[in-house]
């Protein structure tokens, strides 16, 4: 799947027209293909088509004509008094066909009778906050409990970022023209889009440009996972030092290490607090476990940094953070380790939180990946979880820029940014919304780093494998997504990774 921002879509549209393909033809093909989806998915008897003033509304007029042709009883709301260009031509056809045109005041009554709403109010020409009139219509659509098919992007969602500043339509299906719009795959826009489909509208490849956001699917990763080839020994196959766990959080350490083992590490070391070590040692048969100097609250003391660095002598990468705690001691420990190694480092969870307000990340020169969720990134940036959740693309890019590292922002979608590169992961499931799955992810990416992958590629591949493992678990067990526990991922990580070899 190709991902386009609003600007990229408008560029392709302009180039197609420069190549001699009339805009009206593109609109016709978009509307016809979308009407086909509406018929196949919803088999509507009565449809309300809500059309705004731009080309998105023009698509809506074509959809209305096609549904009318197919025998659906159609009502059309056209929000603008005067239309021009292709939308005007398509509206005129509806008038000639005596398709029923309704006024805003009639929308509620029409929604009561309709079994499908086509949302063609605002498309990629929209950004910011919807005006009062449109917001009123959107709220009525959302309150009606009728199936909704959105045209190109749900109205009120910023097609280029997924941001939602005010009212926005909740669709069951969003049908995008030519390329999926970025706003349909990044939260909160993704939750508004429902299922996202793409239809071809006649834009030739000559009109396309390189997208600024990469959709991380299996094809984009195939062959990129390093293999262990002869002659090999355990240290040449990836040696990972995981710095994780405390008395209260032994599981985080176990899950990170087990994720790393299944993602192909030749050998794993774990540094954890002396009090936590006996428990994790039992769970980690293959791992060399070092119980290091304990500090307050059963976590590792900053004084343990030298020992951990010494023990990392043969490591090829480090994962730092799962379950280490967020206190002052944790911060000093993380800073000391970071200052003492140029190996590739992944910082997760408490390690990210603890670096808020420090310059440790910005100063660091070695390859670095951070894997925060919105709360952790909010603390790091000082902006808060709410701001990060509302502006996921912006926030992850800002962090990658400010700290000069690779940023993987976790959530219902996963964004990976480094330098000018941005990608959105294609795999995953709500099943992953359970404690510990993030720890497994840190281990999987850590393993890929230890085996020589570069940070951006390791983060993309790790996120894909992790999400795919959840999909495979769901398929294999047939169990409810809610029943997944993080340790279920272990057996599926290898199979997911196998799909990329
Ligand atoms: N190749 C393409 O790009 C094609 C695009 N098509 C459609 O064209 C759309 C893009 O067309 P446009 O550029 O006309 O964009 P829109 O259809 O999104 O037009 C913007 C409309 O939103 C209104 N608006 C803007 N800000 C607003 C606000 N804050 N509150 C309320 N209303 C606001 C504007 O007055 C205008 O009527 C796409 O989403 C797609 O549906 C199709 O026609 C097929 C071809
Ligand atoms: N609704 C969801 N859909 C898909 N993936 C999700 C969803 N919720 C969470 N995830 C994924 O699950 C993992 C949770 O990690 P994290 O928040 O660090 O939890 P923990 O610290 O308990 O391990 C991340 O990889 C995240 O992207
Ligand atoms: K729309």
TrEMBL record:
Keyword Isomerase in record: yes
Instruction: Look up the EC number in the record and give it.
Output: 4.2.1.136, 5.1.99.6
> Ranges for the YjeF N-terminal domain?
9-209
Q: How the cofactor binds, per note?
A: Binds 1 potassium ion per subunit.
Catalytic activity field = (6R)-NADHX = (6S)-NADHX; (6R)-NADPHX = (6S)-NADPHX; (6S)-NADHX + ADP = AMP + phosphate + NADH + H(+); (6S)-NADPHX + ADP = AMP + phosphate + NADPH + H(+)
Keyword list (alphabetical) reads: ATP-binding, Isomerase, Lyase, Metal-binding, Multifunctional enzyme, NAD, NADP, Nucleotide-binding, Potassium
Q: Where does AMP bind?
A: 410-414, 438
Q: What cofactor does its activity depend on?
A: K(+); Mg(2+)
* Gene Ontology process terms (BP): metabolite repair; nicotinamide nucleotide metabolic process
One of the Pfam families matching this protein, by short name: Carb_kinase
Recorded hits in SUPFAM superfamilies, A to Z, give: Ribokinase-like (SSF53613), YjeF N-terminal domain-like (SSF64153)
All residue ranges annotated as the YjeF C-terminal domain in the record: 217-500
Residues holding K(+)? 56, 119, 155
In terms of InterPro entries, this protein maps to:
Carbohydrate_kinase_pred_CS, CARKD, Nnr, Ribokinase-like, YjeF_N_dom, YjeF_N_dom_sf
NCBIfam families this protein is in? yjeF_cterm, yjeF_nterm
Q: What does this protein do?
A: Catalyzes the dehydration of the S-form of NAD(P)HX at the expense of ADP, which is converted to AMP. Together with NAD(P)HX epimerase, which catalyzes the epimerization of the S- and R-forms, the enzyme allows the repair of both epimers of NAD(P)HX, a damaged form of NAD(P)H that is a result of enzymatic or heat-dependent hydration.
Family, according to the entry, reads as follows: In the C-terminal section; belongs to the NnrD/CARKD family. Belongs to the NnrE/AIBP family.
| Oligomer status and interactors | Homotetramer.
Output this protein's name. Answer: Bifunctional NAD(P)H-hydrate repair enzyme
Native source species: Rubrobacter tropicus
């Amino acid at each position: 799947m190709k991902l386009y921002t609003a600007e990229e879509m408008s560029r392709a549209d302009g180039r197609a027209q420069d190549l001699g393909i009339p805009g009206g033809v593109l609109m016709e093909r978009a509307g016809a293909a979308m009407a086909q989806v509406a018929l196949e998915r919803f088999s509507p008897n009565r449809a309300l088509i809500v059309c705004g003033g731009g080309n998105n509304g023009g698509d809506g007029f074509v959809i209305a004509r096609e549904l009318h042709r197919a025998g659906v009883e159609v009502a059309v709301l056209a929000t603008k008094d005067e239309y021009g260009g292709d939308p005007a031509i398509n509206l005129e056809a509806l008038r000639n066909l005596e398709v029923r045109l309704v006024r805003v005041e009639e929308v509620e009554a029409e929604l009561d009778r309709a079994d499908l709403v086509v949302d063609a109010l605002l498309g990629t020409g929209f950004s910011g906050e919807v005006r009062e009139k449109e917001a009123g219509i959107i709220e009525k659509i959302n309150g009606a409990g009728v199936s909704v098919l959105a045209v190109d992007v749900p109205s009120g969602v910023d097609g280029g970022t997924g941001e939602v500043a005010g009212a926005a339509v909740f669709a069951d299906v969003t049908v995008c023209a030519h390329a999926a719009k970025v706003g349909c795959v990044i939260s909160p826009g993704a939750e508004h889009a429902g299922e996202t489909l793409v239809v071809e509208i006649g834009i030739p490849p000559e009109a396309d440009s390189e997208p600024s956001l990469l959709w991380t699917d299996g094809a984009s990763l195939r062959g990129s996972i390093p293999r262990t080839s002869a002659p090999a020994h355990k240290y040449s196959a990836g040696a990972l030092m995981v710095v994780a766990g405390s008395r209260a959080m032994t599981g985080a350490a176990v899950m990170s290490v087990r994720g790393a083992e299944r993602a192909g590490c030749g050998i794993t070391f774990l540094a954890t607090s002396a009090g936590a070590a006996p428990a994790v040692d039992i769970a980690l048969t293959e791992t060399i476990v070092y119980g290091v100097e304990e500090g307050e609250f059963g976590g590792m003391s900053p004084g343990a940094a030298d020992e951990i660095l010494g023990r990392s002598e043969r490591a090829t990468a480090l994962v730092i953070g799962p379950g280490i705690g967020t206190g002052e001691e944790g911060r000093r420990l993380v800073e000391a380790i970071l200052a003492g190694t140029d190996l590739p480092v992944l910082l997760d969870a408490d390690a990210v939180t603890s670096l808020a307000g420090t310059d440790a990340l910005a100063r660091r020169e070695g390859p670095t990946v951070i894997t925060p969720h919105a709360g952790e990134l909010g603390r790091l940036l000082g902006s808060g979880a709410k701001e990060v959740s509302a502006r996921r693309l912006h926030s992850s890019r800002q962090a990658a820029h400010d700290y000069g590292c690779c940023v993987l922002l976790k959530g219902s979608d996963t964004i990976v940014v480094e330098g000018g590169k941005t990608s959105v992961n294609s795999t995953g499931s709500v099943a992953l919304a359970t404690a510990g799955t993030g720890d497994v992810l840190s281990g999987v990416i850590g393993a890929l780093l230890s085996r020589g992958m570069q940070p951006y590629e390791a983060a993309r591949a790790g996120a894909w494998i992790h999400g795919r493992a959840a999909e495979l678990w769901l398929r294999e067990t047939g169990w409810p997504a809610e029943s997944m526990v993080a340790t279920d991922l272990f057996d599926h990580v290898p199979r997911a990774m196998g799909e990329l070899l």
